[in-house]
Design brief:
SH3 type barrels; five-stranded antiparallel sheet
């Protein structure tokens, strides 16, 4: 994979098209990455002792074919 953790990428396809973000996690087996603050989805969470329940925003993985590398990790 040409994209690594810490790289700055731009999303080329989807609802967040044109936005840029930093890669936080890479899954080479499925060829997906997690981008900080992008591709947010709604998830319903049950109340826990530490946190309140409700609808939370969570980052979802994006396939590497939908990304374009802007800057390498330092």
């Amino acid at each position: 994979m040409s994209i690594r953790k810490g790289d700055i990428v731009k999303i080329t396809i989807g609802k967040d098209r044109g936005k840029e973000g930093k890669v936080t996690k890479v899954n080479p087996c499925k060829e997906t990455v997690m981008v900080e603050g992008l591709n947010l989805v709604k998830r319903h969470c049950k109340p826990q002792r530490q946190s309140k329940g409700g609808i939370m925003d969570k980052e979802a993985p994006i396939h590497i074919s939908n990304l374009k590398k802007i800057q390498k990790a330092e």
